[in-house]
Amino acid sequence: MSGDIYRRCGCRDANGKQYRPLPDRASADAKAHACPKLLSDPRHGSWGYAVSGGVDPVTGKRIQPRATGFPTKAAAQKARAEKVTEVAGGRYKGHQTMTVGEYLTSWLERVDGKLRPTTANMYRRYVEGDLVPALGRVRLAELRRAQVDKFVRDLEKGGRGATTIRRIHATLSSALTTAETLDLVDYNAASKVALPTVTKARISIWEPSLVNVFLAHAAEHRLGPLYELEVHSGLRRGEICGLRWADIDFEQRELHARVQLTQLHGQFIEGPIKTDAGQDRAVSLSEDAIGALMGWKLRQDIERDAWGADYIDSGRVFTYENGSQLRPDHVSRVFDTIVQKAELPHIRFHDLRHLHASLLIAAGVPLAVISKRLGHSTISITSDLYGHLLRDANRQAAEAASELLRAGR
């Protein structure tokens, strides 16, 4: 590794060409092409340095950091020594010209196929719609926390929700973590950036009496058994749509959540369950749930006979009349229609999952069992989601205990 200490100025010769720098130990040729004032006045111009650090193994480009503007030779020498140490230690990134936009594009290609299709689509949407327009032109190696912080603040001023901002930030942070691992940046500039607080909305569910009203109206629809099973199982929408008859064990009265069905750009995608804890989990079924499934199976057999050779045997439990698999958004739309006709308070289809959890809590089922049944990755997630319901159940238990004591007086 070699380098030079030199002086330079902004003066130009008679032809308007800028003079060359004057090395500290200048040859006759160097002096002949330097500014005459640099030769006669030691205070003219400023000091600078140049370092040659070989070729970068990643980019294939030469590492040649330079800097000028130092008031003294000693200051330039000190700065050069620090830069030599930085280059020798592999910590110098100033030579890298890759922009944040270029890197994010390559990162998307890198993670493509390793993520769930819906997650990959979300990353691409945030990269192309938010990150590249705001930060794309910044050199990756020069990206700083202050720039990411300003980006987050601008999103807030633009009216983006806290949850969305956190997802956009998480996308950038994930990409920069990979960049740090590849030694493309010194640190993750998205780390330690203050993010807006997400206000958790209180989960809205029906009272048991309203659930019965809903199930009575749902029974009038062809897909009524699907909604009855949802109330009794708490499956995710993708899980109940992806359910196959091979996943139902009538003898043991349980189902196995093995896949989930999602939609992306109008296409059906079958993938693994959302969490590792939820993959291949067994969900015990009540008599009512088993009865609903058996009745549905009989109906499906009748439809199969009616369609004959045109029937599509997808193997799914819940299908359209011709046997083809259901579109997940169709399940939600039918649910909304039933709720509206029944004149019930509006909730989402996903809230039936919360409803199932609330029924289990009210019945005194241990939290660990509920967490496993729902397929949460940790029991703390279950506790965070249903903490207020747990408190209500505890109060009811306390009152029930007091009633027993009062009755025995």
How does this structure look, described?
- The protein has 409 residues and is of the alpha+beta class.
- It folds into 3 domains: 2-88, no CATH class; 100-181, Tyrosine recombinase, N-terminal domain (DNA polymerase, domain 1, Orthogonal Bundle); 208-379, Orthogonal Bundle (hpI Integrase, Chain A).
- It is built from 15 helices and 9 strands.
- A hairpin with a 4-residue loop joins strand 5 and strand 6 (254-257).
- Helix 8 packs antiparallel against helix 9 (224-233) and helix 13 (351-362) packs parallel to helix 15.
- It starts with a strand and ends with a helix.
Secondary-structure blueprint:
Elements: E1 2-8, E2 22-23, H1 28-32, H2 36-40, E3 46-52, E4 66-70, H3 73-88, H4 100-111, H5 117-135, H6 145-157, H7 162-181, H8 208-218, H9 224-233, H10 237-242, E5 248-249, E6 254-257, E7 260-264, E8 267-271, E9 281-284, H11 287-307, H12 328-341, H13 351-362, H14 367-374, H15 379-407
Antiparallel strand pairs: 1-2, 1-3, 3-4, 5-6, 6-9, 7-8
Helix pairs in contact: 4-5, 4-7, 5-7, 8-9, 9-11, 9-13, 13-15, 14-15
